[in-house]
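Fold it.
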Amino acid sequence: MSDTLISQRFRNFLPVVVDVETGGFNSAKDALLEVAATFVNYDEHGHLHLVDTLHYHVKPFADANIDPESLKITGIDPYHPLRPAWDEAKVAEKLFGAIRTYQKQQGCSRTILVGHNAQFDLGFINALAERTNYQRNPFHPFSALDTVSLGALAYGQTVLARIAQYAGFEYDSKQAHGAKYDTELTAKIFCHIVNTWHDKVGALIKP
């Protein structure tokens, strides 16, 4: 099995699963509060699986809007004195730097974001890069892979909890809306659907 099989499978793109927790729906004005990114890759059996997860708490940028209703959903207290949050510039450096390194290791030319309602997450990722003036954002600026669409195709479901149920994964509502939990569950679903396609339909590429 080639170490760079993943680069062949997704048009030379590296899929990285991302989830963000925010202070609202507007990526330009609302705070980014938490971000997680899960790497996936192929094992020796030719199945896609989770490799590692990056997880960061983020300090709201200056004058960021934070909707109290959003905090009720996420349970985040952005200004709690014990919250281990970094400012956006450090988060961008750590997150994008690690992704670029893994992308290079896998022989990929670009990273493509995988998410549940992926354009929402991509909007906040692009806004993070813009606000911090990060010049080498590894993510494709507008293309993404969405488990909403994949879930609708595979199971006739679009809600993450329902897709998880149909895919055979437990859904813990107490951990939901935490970036690390949500991104790892989304990654499991993404891998499961890709692997099921491989097993039932056949490989699109030769290893």
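Helices lie at 5-9, 68-74, 88-105, 118-131, 147-155, 160-167, 179-200.
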